[in-house]
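#data-curation
PF: Archiving a pair of folding outputs for the training set. Convention for this channel: one message per protein, sequence first, structure tokens after, nothing in between. First:
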Amino acid sequence: MLKRISASVRSLVIAGIFFIIGCQKSNDHVLATIDGKEAITVNDFNIFLEKKFGQNASKLAFSEKREYLDLIINDRLKLAYGIEKGFDKDTSWNEEKDIKNILYRNAYEKYIFGNFVTEDYVKAYMDYFGVTIRVQNIVIRFKDRKGSLAKLTIEQAKRKADSIYILINKNNFEELAEKNSDYYLNPYSKKVNIAHEKMQIGQIPVLYEREVIKMRPNSVSKPIEIQGAYVICRVIAFDDSLKKPIDIAQAKELIKSRLQGDDYATLIRFQNAFLDSLYKSAGVKIVDENIQILLDVLLDTAKAQSGAFGLTEEYLERPIAILGTQSVSFRDFIRNYSPDQIPSPNYQIIQRLVKDYCKSFLLADLSVQDGFMESEAFRAELTESKKKRVIKRVSDELAFIISSPSDSEIYAYYSRNRLKYQTEGVIGWSEIYSPTLELINAAERVIQSGVDLAKIPEIINAKNNDNSVKFIPNNSSKYTEKNELVHVALRMGKNDVSKIVSRKSGGFSIIKIESKIEPELLNYETVKNIMKNDYRNNEIKKSEKELLRNLKKRWKVVIYENNL
């Protein structure tokens, strides 16, 4: 890592670890004290909840707030215990690597992830999560991998999509879809293009979703690039009957996981283009002779087993890449790669790894150029990183003293916890949803006369001249899911129709059970290794509980629930 980074922060780590107790303003109420000292204030706690839950923090029940308060107190106790044991002075802690990770994470969030996931998109995602969108798509595929059936290059597909978009008016979308769309390659559905397709926010590719979520009924999107295709979307309608509340942390995590899934190839292409531009503008020069030295060491098995590639102190400071006025040394490189991570080394592999390291270094350096290292946010993250390492070390020490269970202990654990080791029960149902009690009552009367559920909306909506009543087919949930419909469905048999169910999110439903797959116990030998880990983790939790109980005896914890 660069000297300018390490020198400016070394003292922060030493001082930061002892910043255990949050600074309290004189007018701030106290939620908890540890050993007679102010540990957590209302302001501290509210900031924690807002970071985790965003605007939904105020909706948390008292019991949920108390649970999070207990978690914070437990971490503070383990931190204090870890410092007492000297874990904060652990010389194996790679300070430089943690600093680089913080800087890289900040730049990635801003320059790469931030290009895809804006604050507006996250807010819209929270507002629309679970909402079903009815759409029509024109799909123009391009060849993005070997074996693809598409014939166009990405540039040709973009030109074709742009030319189609120019022609679209209020009346010709279906005609253009039928003539031009690669419906046999449609990444969303096997239906013909002119059919209306239902998509649920939270289950469709991010690059498509982030555009569609901003649209209104009867509007048409510009060509949207997704993995292997350009898509022009026409939104028909929104249905919020399945809308679910989520917090800001969950929203960001879900979007990230999907960016690394459905949209991974597209995201990586954009990411690589950004990193390549950084690399090119920095004028990076690889020091070939030093890469050869590194390769020779790796090929010498005896030296590589040393854990530091067998390099002397003189070699460790040699540059393997020059980045303008800065450089990446052997030491920087081997802090991020160990010999066992490069099992079959050759010159090209080492050169690629060095280039990749340089790119990640340059991205992290954007944070330095932005002045992030002088910010309160950086200092807070660095302090938090050290705290987490101390807390993790406490947990690791507890885990170390727990021995592996014997076969008799595992079988006894299996006998006590058989219901944990079974297949998931799954219920499938169709649903009639209405926002009002009056209309669902009317629907129930029609159902009792023997009419199929799928025809109910047509009958009820025709009488009331609106589209309030919806038929929602092909729902499924695991037995373990906690919502009012699953609670009702568990007491029903196949083909049974429920009474009216009041929905917590608003409105009313009637469901018909289409299928039920009962859970089955798993064979002991099948789950033996899983149970072995579960048993050991359970013992670690008990050991941690005992430690916390003893710490609370030593350092009295007082909680002021009236301030919660």
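PF: Second:
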Amino acid sequence: MQFTASDGSATAGEDYIPVSKRIALSRSGRSSVTVDLLHDTEMEGNETVLLTLSDPGRYTALGDPSTAVLIITENPDLTVDPVDLDPTAVIERNGRFIMPVDVTVRNIGGGRVNNVVVRYRHGYYTGEWQEETIPSLAPGESFQFHWEWDITDRVVRAKGDPCVSFRVEVDPHNAVREVNENNNQQSDTACLDVRPRIIEIDPELPLRRGYYIAGLSAPNLIRAEVDWNGDAVGTGEPPYGEVIFELNGNQVVEPGQAWGAQHTFDMGLDFRGTLYYANNRLRIQPRRTIHGNTVLQGEPHAFWPTVFSYPHWLQYWEVQGFAEPLGAAVWPPAVLYEAEFEYPDAFSAIWNVPEEVPFLGLDGGEFGITDAVGHFLAAVDSTGKGSVRVLDEGFSLLKLGGELIQGAVYGGGDDVAGFAYGWGLRLRKVPMGLEFDEIVPIQDSLVILFPNLRSTQGWWLMPRFVDWLSHASLTGFFDSSMDIQTEFYSTNYGLEFWPAPKESVGYVDATIELITQPLPNLFAIVYGGGVADILVRTPKDPQDPDYLHQGEIQIVSDLRLAAWLYEVEFKRALKCLYPGECTDSWYPDGGEESQTGQRAQAAAPNWHLIPRDYAGPDYARFRAAPALQASSVIQATATTTETLLVSNVYPRSEPA
């Protein structure tokens, strides 16, 4: 008979090999035919092949049935989900480190499979295989394994930061014919760090961008927050580790608590002071002991705080308390350093004026500023910002005409104080001024201004008039409005005035006057004034305390004497320079200027008639001495008796 295998829902050449052949029955009445199936990886569901007997021989008859259906079923397909080792899932319990491992096996094929073997080992290439069996997996079913993997030995060997691997295989002996044999294994590697780690360093005072002064106490509580278990999940129960606080090689070990550990350092007393940044090293490191004697060292945190040397140019420093950093948030606070100091300790701008200078030449002739000292307060916080201000008006003296005038000292400013590399605490160009504002009355004899009048005792008019002039008083005043400005700064050796040629000029205005008529028909007027100024400049040599750079005095005075119809007028111009000498010029009104140092004489030829508008209608009357000589102005006959001179004729030719 003919045997044929033909397409049902299966496709010849894809799912099976077609068959068409003559077969014969054996004596037993049986015969076998093989239909070869073709394996593929497509999930197509069950498919059919039609089997048919036909065309029997002469002595053969077909029975019933003569056809059959061959059903091709799907194979199972076993697979393992990717393995994910999670370091953060490691649990530390009773000194042991346990990593949970979850593995899922699935049958994604079309056929059921029984007694599925799964094997795994701890290590990709090392470790012993361990096997477990899944009784049965129907198509679409899965099975999950959960293992508690003790990795303590690996943690100990790696001293806290091991890397571990895990490998799993399903049907490792290929006992199951599967759709796909390439998805039966998975592996994963994870590195974890279970050493204690610092979460945060929380100091009360900044360790970075903070500046402190050696020798001045500034306690700083430093709190180290620690995760004692690292990547692992701890129970939060003791024992805890400890924290090492190491300052410049010296260690302090503080026992741990659940949150960490803390230690107090004094920024001014425990740290060393220099003039440079980052001159100290503070190292903070956690550690703990596991499994008997294995020490797990955490990563250290290092800081390089800056502590500057004590500034010796100050009288003292005192930590006044805490304050917010200028322009910063409330936290962390800063140390506020405040100190009082006086400056300068030697200030002199004195000019020894020559004795012949009226008024200013009195009592040794000292004119200028002396004994100037300011009382300052410097305030700097540990962020490096600060200011300088004057605590009070300070003290300064102006020597003027034998008088001592007290003045005020002002100055200071914001952002003129701070910390600087190589300097420590530094003052930068702090303004300082000396201010005087006082009017000083002056009074002295007329001969101070015209000293040579005493030489005219032989004056032909009247000796007693000359005597009066010698005792006549002058009045006036000095206006001492002065404002001397300069700047000072700090060095490694002390305080100094700024070396740039900053100049400041102080002026003193002088006014002189005398208007009096002490005797009938005798009249005198003195008026005049001038300016005395000094130029103060910071000396180039800091060791030289003399700040007087230049000086100048100019005094101009005018003396007018009147007796009856006659008058005479003298002028004096005095100019003195520092450095330099004085130029003293005298001359009568309308006459030529005399040479320096000479004195004008109030002699008769210098007198002239007063113009009529000023003389008035009165006649002149005076008593003349017997020795009276005729002059070119007054014509008279000298006798030994009293002579009354009366004239109603104005004796001069120019109009009145």
